[in-house]
Amino acid sequence: VDAGFGKLIFGSGTQLHVYSSK
Question: Which top-level group of life is the source organism from (predicted)?
Answer without folding.
Answer: Eukaryota
